[in-house]
Design a protein that fits this description.
This protein is of the alpha/beta class. The chain contains 8 helices and 11 strands.
Length: 267
């Protein structure tokens, strides 16, 4: 379950983001459907969706907020064979005295365990691991390409904020495949060799932002990428490689034809 300290961390991260509800016409929180579930304002929410809801609620003016579960963000919907034992690796990286730790110490210990899992999966080789990471990255890429289509149907000048609650590992796989930045000489670099190059993996409740927008002529702008966490190294202007995002999304759609119908229904 999402703990009270986890809720507090999420609220504070939203407050530090610099985002203001007054800058947006619509705010909609979306997130994974995976449990366990908490009763939030009369709705059952899994921890990822609840995290997005809390984040958005800090920003939304007067509590004007729409929150919806999104199957695409759920690791439980991945069809690729999982090439590792998540529980075994995660638990092996928790201290033996975990249950006796304070809430703050537990948060720190859990973050370290999640880092260990993420680094383990990024380091796996072979076709099974490649497909698993590609599908996970494709789930977020699918969502991004969906909103690239939606933005063309919005009224000119409309700004929408969509806090999305996902899971540890998913975001790193997408960045590994598609994040573009420049080195000291101005040469573009896509992805990374180690997580340390981008300041490490994401902490619980840490966010990044992908800007989906069109110019005045209706053409897609680059997918601008920013980290919300200011303690990360200055990597200059970043974006997601649009071609790679599209390829990942198409791969995901091939594995999940059911989401094509779901998307049409939601629209």
């Amino acid at each position: 379950m999402l703990t009270d300290i986890g809720r507090d961390i999420t609220s504070k991260n939203a407050q530090k983001s610099g985002l203001s509800g007054e800058d947006f016409d619509y705010i909609k929180a979306i997130g994974s459907t995976v449990g366990p579930y908490a009763d939030v304002e009369g709705e059952k929410m899994g921890r990822a969706l609840e995290t997005a809801h809390i984040y958005a609620n800090e920003i939304a003016p007067d509590g004007t907020l729409n929150t919806r579960p999104t199957e695409v963000l759920s690791y439980a919907n991945l069809v690729s064979k999982v090439p590792y034992n998540h529980t075994e690796i995660y638990n092996a990286n928790l201290p033996e005295n975990f249950e006796s730790l304070s809430d703050e110490e537990k948060v720190e210990a859990q973050a370290k365990a999640q880092i260990a899992v993420t680094e383990h999966v990024l380091g796996l080789t072979g076709p099974e691991a490649d497909q698993y990471r590609k599908e996970a990255a494709g789930s977020l890429a699918y969502l991004i390409t969906h909103y690239q289509e939606v933005v063309h149907r919005l009224k000119s000048g409309t700004k929408t904020l969509l806090p999305a609650g996902s899971h540890g590992g998913f975001v790193e796989f997408l960045m590994k495949a598609a994040l573009v930045r420049k080195d000291a000489e101005g040469k573009k670099i896509r992805g990374f060799s180690t997580l340390n190059e981008i300041g490490g993996p994401h902490s619980p409740s840490e966010a990044f932002t992908v800007g989906v927008a069109t110019d005045r002529s209706g053409n897609d702008k680059p997918l601008k990428f920013t980290f919300d966490e200011t303690n990360r190294p200055d990597l200059g202007e970043m974006e997601l490689d649009a071609k790679t995002v599209k390829e990942l999304a198409e791969f995901y759609k091939e594995l999940h034809p059911e989401f094509r119908a779901l998307r049409t229904h939601q629209e």
